[in-house]
Amino acid sequence: MTQAPEPPLSDVEYHVKAAAVLAAVEATVDRLLQDDVIDIDAHRTGGLLELKFPRGATIVINTQPPLHELWLAAPGGGYHFRHVGGRWLDREQREFFAVLTQCASQAGAAVVRFVP
Which of 45, 66, 88, 102 is the most buried if burial means most Cβ atoms within 10 Å? Predict the structure, then answer.
């Protein structure tokens, strides 16, 4: 028996879930700064969050409301995530926070962990 596909998010649901992701990333950056783990400069403008790392690398997280996606641009590449089964997954089924953790650790030359 195959499971019915998950209904797409409404615009309101998308905005709530995408805003929660950006807020979680900002909270993690605040914690990393407070714990003196790494100095990440975070700047948010609407649905765009830019993270600048000490060695000059930048990661940009951007909401894409028309597509109901989150985009992550990092020195190692770009990723598009859709909300599926309660998680933000890219085309390769990689989870948003796992990819962000990997990219941020590489950009900052320090092990950092982002969680929802």
Answer: 88
Segment 25-42 mean pLDDT: 91
Closest CA to 77 of 56, 102, 52: 102
Helix and strand numbers (H, E) in the chain are 2, 6
Task: Please say whether the beta carbons of 31 and 53 come within 8 A.
Answer: no
* Residue 1 reports pLDDT greater than 70: no
Tell me the domain boundaries of the chain. Answer: 11-108
Any idea which fold 11-108 has? Metal Transport, Frataxin; Chain A (3.30.920)
Q: What is the pLDDT of residue 7?
A: 76
